[in-house]
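FAQ: What does the model actually see?

It sees only this:
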Amino acid sequence: MIQRESPASTRQRNPGSSVGPVRTCVGCRKRELANELFRVVAVIDGNGQCAVTVDTAASLPGRGAWLHPDRQCVQVAIQRRAFVRALRIAGSPDTSAVVEYVEELSASTARSEEQVAKNMSTP
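And it is asked to produce this:
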């Protein structure tokens, strides 16, 4: 008799396991919870050019790709042409909006860390 694995819905879940959807970063290819990544989608402007834009609410229509909010992941995704493959678009899309978004996040994180350090050092 062949033993079959039970369906996923009836399996016992590990109580310590993370809950929520898991997505793969198109830059580094690591799997993370969706709330640790941000979603990007391809939008077509009036000239027929394609641009990759950040979908902060994860609600824009169309195919999406997920990315860590890290400069290295963005650069690797651009070099590997991962946006073209993941979003199934032709040509070379404009990714400046994604680069600016990550730079902005990095700058705001650095400012908040400096503020925390400053607050901790004052008596």
